[in-house]
Amino acid sequence: MAKVTVDGIEVEVPNGASVLQACEAAGKEIPRFCYHERLSVAGNCRMCLVEVEKAPKPVASCAFPVADGMKVFTDTPVVRNARRGVMEFLLINHPLDCPICDQGGECDLQDQAYAYGHDSSRYGEAKRAVKDKDIGPLVKTVMTRCIQCTRCVRFAAEVAGTPELGGTNRGENMEIGTYVEKALSSELSGNLIDICPVGALTSRPYAFVSRPWELKKTDSIDVLDAVGANIRVDSRGPEVLRIIPRVNEAVNEEWMADRGRFSFDGLKRRRLDRPWVHKDGKMVAATWPEAFAAIAHRLAGLPGERIGAVAGALADAESVVALKDLMAAYGSANLDCRDDGAAIDASRPDYWRFNTTIEGIEEADALLIIGSDIRREAPVLNARIRKRWAAGRFPVAYVGPRGLDLTYPATHLGDGPGAMGAFAETLKAAQKPMVIVGRGALQRPDGAAVLAAAWKLAAEVGALTPDWHGFNLLHLFGGQVGALELGFVPGQGGKDLAAMLAGGVDALWLLNADGFDPARIPASTFVVYQGHHGDAMAGRADVILPGAAYTEKDATWVNTEGRAQRGRLAIHPPGEAKEDWRIVRAFSEGVGKTLPYDDAGAIRARLAEASPVFARIGEVARGGCADLAGPAATAAPTDAAFVLPIPVYHQADVISRASDTMAKCAEVYGPQTALAAE
């Protein structure tokens, strides 16, 4: 550790730290544009100039390492004049369009010009103009505002792993762009908006919609993939206008995937806003009592074994436990939350969790990916893997379709389960090897065998030890793990999804279950669909109960690593739609099977009773593997090639399928976004 004195305050910082980091440790604010703590140091804006004792001139604090005994001065006449000069140069060609700039109110340049700049300009010549670049349907460019800080260039190359941005020309003629005009191919491109310190890169869907001070800001969780990124939902009145990430070092750092960020316009399209009942060959609008009466009438004469329920990928934990309790009241054990047919063994939590944890990826030293395109299934988690790869000595291999571009070098071992053992020696040589099994690898007839084989491989190569748990199952959406934690799977003598769809039930309650083809449901089966979008499954329903989307309720979600997190109500559901657990609770009361909770506190107590995961919100229990017994399987996996579960990244769920923005992205990018050119 080095002792550094900053404006008379002595602090200790690690050897190799920068002067800027030492100043921050001393509580001093240092202005900056090019510096970002998660990117490499560029040192090209010079806004962070400070004085160092015995240095001949002010130094760029972001790129200057500390030394023991160093004395730093952050607010001297020399520093103030240097910063004013830097700001004057930055504003020479910057347009004076703050009143109409999308970044107004959130602009670092605006704030720092006010705090550190001159009160007037001496520049009287004509300003240069730069042609705007078309880099896709998500990010809007006004490149005349660009100050060449190169944050976007470094983010694209270092974090996203798609080095498509760079500088052309030199000096005053320098421009940032994509060299050949094209749409950015990264699933993390929206983060460029957050890191741009000026208005050069802004959100195209949000352009000219509102100012930040007009918005109501609500903390929530992104459920459109299973990472559980912490987000902030910005709304005005009854409408969500923007979604941006919040910092959570253990989960998403400060990044967010594009589908979760930009698909919010799907929240107001194709919505189910009133109950519907099938009468005389067509669906007609109904009241809540009429819808409940229609369901009660059909369920009244059925034994429990002829009633089933399926929870889908976007179902919150409160609604899942309420539906499970309702089915128990009817005497039914026919439950399943694996609406995509994935053969997940639900007998032990570490068979379905990402046991290494997202933060633990940075400790691993070898990785095998089985049947997953992590780049599209969990872009933020993939960025964490890339971060570990960039740190060095991290061999990666994958089994799946040839030609996947994961944004880091990965050896293709083969297309099917038979190739999993080809990487065994490398994993054995590692101290902390990881195995990641994609949910798509389990959506096949031999899925149980694939899961068992992957666990066995992890045990054989030393990935399962008392101090390290290297077996990981990567889920696709935010509601999948919570239902598993709550045991929403067939009970004693109960039927799974396949058995229910084969005629095993006469009535089927679907809770946000959109993961299978509705044509598989027998024509004679009575179907209740409870959800928030009029997608394909709603067209098969006999009764439709309109629920609330994830931005419209206080709800609990569990991410792929088993971390329970709370989302907050940002806007109210449209029309007569209601929170899902309240719908189930109201129905139970109407049929004389009243569930024993009627407020949020009571149902959350029920969640904590059902699983300890819900008693530690925001935390995850991380440890090794003490029991090497593997998932059950009756046969070996076949050699059939793995098929990836998300053919079109931008339209993977009911919300994004209703989004015009995501439809434009699907049109621009097509189904091969993450495949490398052969």
Folded structure, characterized:
The chain has 678 residues and is an alpha/beta fold. Among the domains are: 2-90, Ubiquitin-like (UB roll) (Roll); 216-271 and 648-678, no CATH class; 290-340 and 480-532 and 554-568 and 580-611, Rossmann fold, CATH 3.40.50; 349-475, Dimethylsulfoxide Reductase, domain 2, CATH 3.40.228.10. It is built from 18 helices and 28 strands. It has a 7-stranded mixed sheet, with helices on one face. Strands 2-1-5-3-4 form a 5-stranded mixed sheet, with helices on both faces. Strands 19-18-17-20-23 form a 5-stranded parallel sheet. β3 and β4 form a beta hairpin. α8 (317-329) packs parallel to α15 (580-590). It is globular and about 90 Å long. 52% of the residues are buried. Residues 673-678 have low confidence and may be disordered.
How many strand segments?
28
Q: Which residues sit in consecutive blocks of at least 5 with pLDDT less than 50? A: 673-678
Relative strand content = 15-25%
Q: Please describe the biggest sheet, giving its number of strands, its sense, and whether it closes into a barrel.
A: 7 strands, mixed
Radius of gyration, CA atoms, in whole angstroms: 27 Å
CATH level-two architecture of the domain at 290-340 and 480-532 and 554-568 and 580-611 = 3-Layer(aba) Sandwich
The tally of helices reads 18
CATH topology of the domain at 290-340 and 480-532 and 554-568 and 580-611: Rossmann fold
End-to-end Cα distance: 49 Å
Task: Supply the CATH class of the domain at 290-340 and 480-532 and 554-568 and 580-611.
Answer: Alpha Beta
Query: Fraction of residues in helices?
Result: 10-25%
Question: Which structural class fits the helix and strand makeup?
Answer: alpha/beta
